[in-house]
Amino acid sequence: MITMHKINSLAEHQVLECVGEDAGDTFRIIVKHTSPSHYEALGKVTLKDASVNYKSSGSMTPDLLLQWLDTLFDRWPKAKNIPWALHDLDEKTQQFVREVRQATDVI
Fold it and tell me: What is the per-residue pLDDT across 7-63, written as a single tens digit (0 to 9) for each?
């Protein structure tokens, strides 16, 4: 489960990542810095009907980000208990960030 402490402890070169499945839907969500005091959640959700949805919170304070994630996970109650892994913002994760940003950009 993600907490305010975990978000606030995040170094600028790190991300928190949650990968899971609930009710036949799969998801991957990461949380990363956008500035020293703001963070962003980016995610890809594949629904059981195979449709893909991309999610982006935009830059938020930790408390607002937690509310945004809580609302997102209302659809998947079991997901709220899935552990979040801490790791460096590596090339594979940066590629995921680019994929989500490209999909969520408003033209």
Answer: 999 999 999 999 999 989 999 999 999 999 999 999 999 999 999 999 999 999 999
Q: What are all long-range contacts of 62-69, with beta carbons under 8 Å and residues at least 24 apart? A: 62/4, 62/7, 62/8, 63/4, 65/7, 65/31, 65/39, 65/40, 65/41, 66/2, 66/3, 66/4, 66/7, 68/41, 69/2, 69/29, 69/31, 69/41
Q: Which of 94, 89, 96 is nearest to 11 (CA)?
A: 89
**Model's pTM, two decimal places?**
0.91
Which one-letter DSSP state was computed for residue 107?
-
CB-based contact 69:2 (threshold 8 Å): yes
